[in-house]
């Protein structure tokens, strides 16, 4: 499949039976497949979507579920992207809960620093 094929969020939302708002929330939380912004339009590469779908497969051994080893999207993007177009890589999270926990731990650590500086004044 051609790696330069892009789709917008509406066809991707229909493909996964999600709302476009869910994909928008995932982008804010740095979850989901890699995306590209061209002006105001957000697009997803089909190859990135297929990689994300492969990582989402969960196998069952009869008693417990086993997740397949995940592939770091950032590493895949570094291999595919030309070096002159390399952008800073934002962290991606496997679940919404992981993203929210990371966000809350960042806010806790920044408030702790703020509290410590107020104590010394």
The count of DSSP E runs of length 2 or more, i.e. the number of strands, is 5
Work out the helicity level. Answer: 40-55%
State the helix count: 5
N-to-C series of helices and strands: EHHEEHEEHH
Structural class of the helices, strands and pairings?
alpha+beta
Strand content: 5-15%
Radius of gyration: 18 Å
Query: Uncertain regions: pLDDT < 50 for 5+ in a row?
Result: none
What distance separates the N and C termini? Answer: 62 Å
Largest sheet at a glance? 3 strands, antiparallel
Q: How is the largest sheet built, in terms of strand order?
A: 1-3-2
Number of domains: 1
Arithmetic mean of pLDDT: 75
Overall spatial form: globular
In terms of quaternary structure, the protein is single chain
Question: Could you describe the 3D structure shown?
Answer:
The chain has five helices and five strands, in the order E-H-H-E-E-H-E-E-H-H. The chain has 121 residues and is of the alpha+beta class. The chain has one domain. A three-stranded antiparallel beta sheet has the order 1-3-2. A two-stranded antiparallel sheet has the order 4-5. Helix 1 crosses helix 2. The model has no long low-confidence stretch (mean pLDDT 75).
List the defining traits of the structure above:
121 residues; alpha+beta; three-stranded antiparallel β-sheet; two-stranded antiparallel ribbon; 5 strands
What is the topological layout?
Elements lengths: L5 E3 H8 L3 H9 L7 E3 L2 E5 H10 L2 E3 L4 E3 L5 H8 L15 H24 L2
Antiparallel strand pairs: 1-3, 2-3, 4-5
């Amino acid at each position: 499949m051609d790696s330069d094929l892009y789709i917008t969020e509406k066809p991707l939302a229909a493909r996964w039976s999600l709302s476009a708002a869910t994909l928008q929330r995932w982008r804010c939380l740095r979850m989901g497949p890699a995306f590209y912004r061209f002006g105001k339009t957000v697009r997803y590469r089909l190859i990135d979507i297929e990689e994300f779908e492969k990582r989402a497969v969960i196998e069952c051994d009869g008693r417990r579920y086993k997740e397949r080893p995940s592939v770091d999207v950032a590493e895949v993007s570094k291999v595919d992207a030309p070096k002159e177009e390399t952008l800073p890589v934002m962290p991606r999270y496997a679940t919404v809960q992981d993203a929210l926990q990371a966000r809350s731990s960042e806010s806790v650590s920044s408030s702790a620093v703020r509290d410590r500086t107020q104590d010394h004044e």
